[in-house]
Amino acid sequence: MELKHIDGLEKASQQGHPELIRLGLGVLFVVAVLLYALFRNGEGGSLYIVAAAVIGGYMALNIGANDVANNVGPAVGSQALTMGGALAIAAIFEAAGAVIAGGEVVGTIRNGIINPAMISDSQTFIWVMMSALLASALWLNAATAVGAPVSTTHSIVGAVIGSGVAAAGMNIVAWGKMGQIAASWVISPVLGGLVAAALLYLVKRSITYQADKVAAARTVVPWLMAFMGWSFVTYLLLKGLSKLVKVNTPTAALVGLAAAVVVFVLVRGALQKHAATMANNKEAVNDLFTLPLIFAAALLSFAHGSNDVANAVGPLAAIVDVASSVNGVIHKDAPVPLWVMMVGALGISVGLALYGPRVIRTVGSEITELDKIRAYCIAMSATLTVIIASELGMPVSSTHIAVGAVFGVGFLREYLKNRYDRLVEEIKSHHPEADQAALDLFLSQFRAATVKDKGQMLADLKTRIKQQQDPAHFSKPERKTLKKVYRRELVKRSQLLRIAAAWVITVPASALMAALAFFILRHTMGG
After folding, report:
1. Count of alpha carbons within 13 Å of 52, Cβ hemisphere only?
2. In whole angstroms, how large is the CA radius of gyration of the chain?
3. What is the spatial distance between Cα 225 and Cα 292, in angstroms, rounded to a whole number?
4. For 128, which of 145, 163, 249, 317 could close a Cys bridge (C-beta 3.0–4.6 Å)?
5. Cα 377 to Cα 107: distance, rounded to the nearest angstrom
6. How far apart are the C-alpha atoms of 498 and 501, rounded to whole Å?
């Protein structure tokens, strides 16, 4: 073998070293979970509990690798946070949310999707839960491998359905509840996209489209930050701290309003001092959203940890509860031991650190280009949509909302850019062919004008053209450009199709995998 071929093999092997290290660390975490579950009370643990703990640790790794990206991806894509900073913040606040506010009790049957009374015995129930846990973890692993952000909730729901049907038949499923979940596939991303696009358009009209952006920011930004303070405190009370503090939506909204007043006063005071040194451009306005985005990433991660982590380890908690019971009683709700919650919290942190960057890059930069203003609108959409949906009683997925919001701001940008291109072509068609200086001057003034002034400039231009006595003064080729439609694609359609496909098949794929896992586990280990 020639030396150059040997050199090529060495380079290829070096490129694979980081992947092997990540795999090794992941396996090390799972082994640590196994050993702890085996010897946690100084004696050999139940085989069921040990096996479930290992699968639960693997599940937690995959939640960290996939689901957490939605909370920090936009902040990374907009460069408000570095990848390392985002990983650290997400890991700390996800774990804190799980341990502090994760709750002491979790439903053993996710969202009442199946009827546990139809499961004949405790051993069958254990196989159902273990199969669901394994299948949902495998599906999340597959989605992460291709960089597709999918819903942990939907993965678990599909897996519980699949293993439940395999154990007791089709009648075990609450199909009405399943219909609501299926509806959320459409409701969540569409609602998230519409809210994010509406917020972005509001910010553009009120700040970045204004001639004096500094004055506009000084007036509008305190209100935007106050609105953010209200939405995040309300969201945190309704979702992030719901296991610790029981409040209804009106009460949470009132507490959020008090926080909004404090935020408004603080931001307005700080901005009055900072405005004197601000440049009158979009970049300076963008920088005002850096700190709020860091807080957003932390709070969203905390809320996610308090909700989805506890639900994700629900099957593990159910197995521990049944396996530890003297009579093998299947309870509607199961207490969550601290060690089970810690498996979920630490597993998410490890999975995020090892494999999180892949999906974070997809959400943050591979769908559409994000800046800090767009990332702010996405973070706001994630909280507002959940608040709206909770009040209306609609089931929604936080993953689908966040990704839908990314697509929403991307498609709005695409629409506005294409509309602007058509306006520029219209302006060109109404100018003399040889008068390039006049055209350049008009376009310069047009770009700097507000939205209202742009409309007036176009109306005045058309009026002057109608008064021209010599229509041949304008070239036919430039007249024809009016009919052109310039399409600038600012959203990657390939990502849209890939993610949508992953969403649609999440429930059926995890269900089939869980059914297969149930038959294998029962016949090889359960007898």
Report:
1. 29
2. 27
3. 8
4. 163
5. 33
6. 5
Beta carbons of 119 and 167 less than 8 angstroms apart: yes
Tens digit of each residue's pLDDT (9 = 90 or more) over 423-466: 777 666 666 655 666 666 766 776 677 666 666 766 776 676 66
Angle, CA of 60, 63 and 66, to the nearest 5°: 150
- What gap in Å lies between CA 449 and CA 416, rounded to an integer? 15
Q: What is the DSSP letter of 363?
A: I
**106 forms bridges with which residues in the sheet?**
334
Q: Give backbone dihedrals phi and psi of 204, rounded to 5 degrees, phi first.
A: -65, -50
β 333-335/105-107 pair status: antiparallel
- Kindly report the backbone phi and psi dihedral angles of residue 487, in degrees, each rounded to the nearest multiple of 5, phi listed first: -110, 105
Angle between helices 314-324 and 152-168 in degrees, nearest 10: 40
CB 236, CB 421: distance < 8 Å: no
AA letter at 120: S
Q: pLDDT for 118-142, tens place per residue?
A: 887 888 888 998 999 999 999 999 9
The pair of three-digit structure tokens given for residue 355, joined into one six-digit string: 């494999």
* Residues in CB range of 304: below 8 A, 6 or more apart: 67, 68, 71, 94, 97, 398
Q: How many CB atoms lie within 10 A of CB 3?
A: 7
| Cβ atoms of residues 323 and 124 within 8 Å | no
Quote the pTM value: 0.81
The per-residue pLDDT for 323 is: 80
Q: Token pair for residue 464? A: 């002057």
In sequence order, what are the beta bridge partners of 335?
A: 105
- In this structure, what token pair is assigned to residue 248? 């209804």
Intra-chain end-to-end CA distance of the chain, in Å? 54
Check the CA dihedral 323-327-331-336 and report its sign.
negative
Query: How far, in Å, are 35, 384, 385 from residue 233 at the CA level?
Result: 40, 11, 14
DSSP strands (E only) in 286-338: 333-335
Written in H, E and C, the secondary structure of 183-231 is HHHHHHHHHHHHHHHHHHHHHHHHHHCCCCHHHHHHHHHHHHHHHHHHH
86-123 residue pLDDT tens: 999 988 888 888 878 766 555 655 556 888 778 878 88
Give backbone dihedrals phi and psi of 157, rounded to 5 degrees, phi first. -60, -50
In terms of Cβ atoms closer than 10 Å to its own Cβ (0-12, 13-18, 19+), residue 266 is: middle
How distant is the alpha carbon of residue 469 from its chain centre? Answer: 58
The answer for residues whose C-beta is within 8 angstroms of residue 414's C-beta and 6 or more apart is 488, 489, 490, 491
- CA pair distance 249, 409, nearest whole angstrom: 28
Extract the tokens encoding 183.
């509806």
For residue 345, how many C-alpha atoms fall within 13 Å in the half-sphere facing its CB?
23
